[in-house]
Automatic annotation (TrEMBL), chain A:
This is Anaphase-promoting complex subunit 2. GO terms for molecular function: ubiquitin protein ligase binding. GO terms for biological process: cell division; metaphase/anaphase transition of mitotic cell cycle; protein K11-linked ubiquitination; ubiquitin-dependent protein catabolic process. InterPro entries: ANAPC2, ANAPC2_C, Cullin_homology, Cullin_homology_sf, TPR_ANAPC2, WH-like_DNA-bd_sf, WH_DNA-bd_sf. Belongs to the cullin family. The keyword 4Fe-4S does not apply. SMART domains: APC2, CULLIN. SUPFAM superfamilies: Cullin homology domain, Winged helix' DNA-binding domain. Keywords: Cell cycle, Cell division, Mitosis, Ubl conjugation pathway. Residues 214-420 form the Cullin family profile domain. GO terms for cellular component: anaphase-promoting complex. The keyword ATP-binding does not apply. PANTHER family: ANAPHASE-PROMOTING COMPLEX SUBUNIT 2. It comes from Laccaria amethystina LaAM-08-1.
Automatic annotation (TrEMBL), chain B:
Keywords: ATP-binding, Nucleotide-binding, Transferase, Ubl conjugation pathway. Signal peptide: none annotated. Residues 29-174 form the UBC core domain. Residues 1-28 are annotated as: Disordered. This is UBC core domain-containing protein. Gene3D superfamilies: Ubiquitin Conjugating Enzyme. The keyword Thylakoid does not apply. The active site is at C115.
Length: 597, 174
């Protein structure tokens, strides 16, 4: 039939129609065969499909004489395959990255396609858009974002080795990660192989451990014989980052590695303090981790961690010595205050026999190390105790606060919440209540009436049953026997220890502490989600009012321009100050705001 | 000769303008340094010391507050000081004086002038408002009785009760 067409001269006329039929056919075929097929390279399959199917069909259309014309059509079709596939992969890129490394084929296809088709900008735009929509929002777990970021790095390295695409895509992710409060924590947790909460490690086990590379400094090495000019679409701020390892890249999200080292110390402190019963295998494990990290971060940066680990072994040694002098139920972990991150402090005082045990231990310790002084942190640690009640014996591993309360009940059987709190020093009411509820749940105490706790010398069968006073019995033979209490002690080096800072407070928690007051009033200032520079407003107002005395609102507003990034209106400031007044931080009289002293 | 002067003239004026430009730039960098110091001071929580610019628009004049360190004779009292930064700060020390009358061996009771080495010959550009305030706070508890500005106070230092009487006699809240 085509032959006749040719004779009629119709082919020339309908060539474009035939071509577009060809294009549509190719498109349909590519979409049908390649969508979601990322495992293998599809390009070769498509090419052979074209030479097997499309080309013979074309041959049937075009007569012998027009072969020469076919050349052009063929290469146009080949281009069209590339373009269709490239478009498809661009649309799928986000999921391809998720599937990495099972999507190697798709990535290689994409790489080949991009060399023929100029779609790099489209790819960047699509990926950035997908990231914004699917990744960089508060609903996504930081860990997830990190692993997707790492996958993105690996994928785009395949597609575009010089890293231009990566640079463009990574920038928003890095900026977003910098704003997330727990990014450092996640990275560090990964560094120490803390995969307790499941999930893949970001770092490839097989990846060799190398020192952190300074990604930032990109002085061109003029003697590099393999130097290549930067790709044409590289922006002015583009830095060729030589293929560096994942950790270096992650650490470079932040400007300095100090943050990581600090977080690492906090994490190590938490993990070391969580070790119970002198489980030295775990200490050894931590030590191994730190040794590995030393290779990355350098010996000097991890000096502090080294001291912390040494404290653990020293504690065991010292404890061994003290026990040999005078056996004690207390097994403290002795830490050097200056080298550990701030630990949570508490004004709790252990009552009764706990205090005696502590004092005895401290005496022995002073004999052993005359120049050091123990400062107990009784609220950390655990107490194993055995309660001997009239009709039963209760054995329990409890928190020190809980132990302290139950110790108080050995004096009398009925205490009000206030009396109990006064008995153990200054502690938070809700914490006290929580500790008491533990015993209530164990059936040792009972709250009756509200805020008064009584000891159940005999187990109560039916809680709702009658409660005659006799049932509680007289606390005849009740005494507490701590079998093994391990309490944390702190060496205060003989110096005035000052207001105790709580270590095992993460960097963010410390930050949160600083902005506590700010956050309380935060709901009244509904502007940006990340008010980083504004955290200092409270300090600025405080500094201002301390030094300048009372100030009218408009003066405060104008003076606040010393605070970088301050952009609140005077109305917003007024609500802020009003909230601060309600909290009792400031007072206002005759329009002059003052600190409430 | 004429040629010589004419070639000199523009270069001189150019030099002059570059000088003014650099001094302007200098003032800018001093202001930047001061606002950084303010930021640091606000962010740090050193108990008992604080300072803030006196007026908006002028970063070179600050008011400070120092609380007497606990367990010293000055405990519970707070002193206002004024801090005046020179335009070539931090290469030159700021001038600092007590506004609250302070009965102290190293402080002039009437003028509030302070005799402290780091504010005079020992000044270094690495010091900051915060270090100055901290030094002043510790000076309260540990005076240098060897070079007193107020000989009476230096003489009384070892008699805390009599010293306290004099201190409270002169002290008044601003």
């Amino acid at each position: 039939m085509f032959g006749e067409f040719e004779e009629l001269g119709l082919i020339d006329r309908y060539e474009s129609v035939i071509a577009s039929v060809g294009y549509e056919h190719i498109e349909a075929h590519v979409l049908e065969t390649c969508t979601g097929q990322w495992g293998n390279t599809m390009l070769d399959v498509l090419r052979s499909w074209m030479s097997d199917k499309v080309v013979p069909w074309m041959l049937s259309v075009v007569a012998e004489e027009a072969r020469s014309m076919l050349q052009g059509v063929g290469s146009r079709f080949d281009f069209h395959i590339n373009k269709t596939l490239c478009d498809l992969r661009t649309r799928e890129i986000f999921d391809i990255i998720i599937d990495f490394p099972d999507s190697m084929g798709a990535l290689n296809d994409l790489k080949d396609c991009l060399q023929r088709v100029d779609q790099r900008t489209a790819l960047v735009t699509a990926l950035r858009k997908a990231n914004r929509k699917r990744l960089l929002h508060p609903g996504a777990d930081t860990k997830l974002i990190l692993s997707q970021y790492v996958a993105t790095i690996k994928c785009l390295r395949i597609v575009d080795p010089p890293g231009v695409l990566l640079f463009k895509v990574a920038d928003p992710i890095r900026r977003y990660l910098r704003d997330r409060p727990d990014t450092i924590r996640c990275i560090v947790a990964n560094l120490v192989g803390d995969n307790s909460d499941g999930g893949d490690a970001l770092v490839d086990e097989n990846e060799p451990i190398v020192p952190l590379q300074q990604v930032m400094d990109s002085m061109d090495d003029y003697g590099d014989p393999n130097w290549e000019p930067e790709p044409v679409d590289a922006g002015p701020e583009f830095r060729t980052n030589k293929p560096s390892d994942v950790i270096s890249t992650l650490v470079s999200i932040y400007d300095s590695k100090d943050l990581f080292v600090k977080e690492l110390q906090v994490l190590l402190a938490q993990r070391l303090l969580a070790i119970k019963d002198g489980n030295f295998e775990r200490v050894e494990k931590e030590r191994r981790n730190i040794e590995i990290l030393k290779i990355r971060f350098g010996e000097a940066a991890l000096q502090v961690c080294e001291v912390m680990l040494k404290d653990m072994t020293d504690s065991k040694r010292i404890d061994g010595h003290v026990q040999s002098q005078k056996a004690s139920n207390v097994h403290p972990t002795i830490i050097s205050k200056h080298f550990w991150p701030a630990l949570e402090s508490s004004d709790m005082v252990m009552p009764g026999q706990f205090q005696e045990l502590q004092d005895l231990y401290a005496q022995e310790f002073t004999i052993f190390k005359p120049d050091k002084k123990l400062k107990w942190l009784p609220h950390l640690g655990t107490v194993r105790l055995e309660l001997q009640l009239d009709d039963r014996t209760v054995e329990a591993d409890v928190l020190p606060l809980e132990a302290a309360f139950i110790e108080l009940f050995s004096k009398k059987d009925e205490w009000t919440l206030e009396e109990l709190i006064a008995g153990v020093g200054d502690i938070d009411r809700s914490a006290a209540f929580k500790a008491l509820v533990t015993w209530v749940n164990m059936g040792v105490l009972k709250e009756d009436p509200e805020n008064t706790f009584v000891l159940l010398e005999r187990a109560e069968e039916d809680v709702s049953g009658k409660r005659s006073p006799e049932e509680w019995g007289v606390s005849a033979g009740t005494f507490w026997l701590p079998i093994d209490s391990s309490v944390l002690a702190l060496i205060g080096g003989g110096v005035n220890v000052g207001p105790e800072l709580p270590p095992v407070i993460t960097a963010q928690q410390q930050q949160a502490e600083q902005m506590k007051v700010y956050w309380k009033v935060r709901p009244f200032i509904p502007s940006q989600p990340y008010p980083a520079p504004k955290l200092t407003i409270r300090q600025f107002i405080e500094g201002m009012l301390t030094n300048l005395g009372g100030l009218p609102l408009d003066r405060i507003q104008t003076m606040l321009k010393f605070a970088p990034g301050y952009d609140q209106s005077i109305e917003q400031l007024a609500t802020f100050m009003e909230a601060a007044r309600r909290e009792g931080l400031v007072v206002v009289r005759d329009g002059m705001w003052r600190l409430n002293k | 000769m004429e040629q010589l002067t004419s070639s000199l003239a523009p270069s001189r004026s150019a030099q002059k303008s570059s000088v003014t430009a650099s001094s302007q730039q200098g003032a800018g960098s001093v202001a930047k340094r001061l606002s950084n110091e303010l930021m640091t001071l606000m962010m740090s929580s050193s108990p008992g010391i604080s300072a803030f610019p006196k007026n908006d628009g002028n970063l070179f004049e600050w008011v400070g507050t120092i609380e007497g360190p606990p367990e010293t004779i000055y405990a519970g009292l707070s002193f206002k000081i004024s801090i005046l930064f020179p335009s070539n700060y931090p290469y030159v020390a700021p001038s600092i004086k007590f506004d609250t009358p302070c009965y102290h061996p190293n402080v002039d009771i009437t003028g509030g002038v302070i005799c402290l080495d780091i504010l005079q010959d020992k000044w270094s550009a690495v010091y900051s408002v915060q270090t100055i305030l901290l030094s002043l706070q510790s000076l309260l508890g540990e005076p240098n009785n060897a070079s007193p500005l107020n000989p009476d106070a230096a003489a009384l230092w070892n008699k805390p009760d009599a010293f306290k009487v004099q201190l409270l006699k002169h002290y008044r809240l601003l």
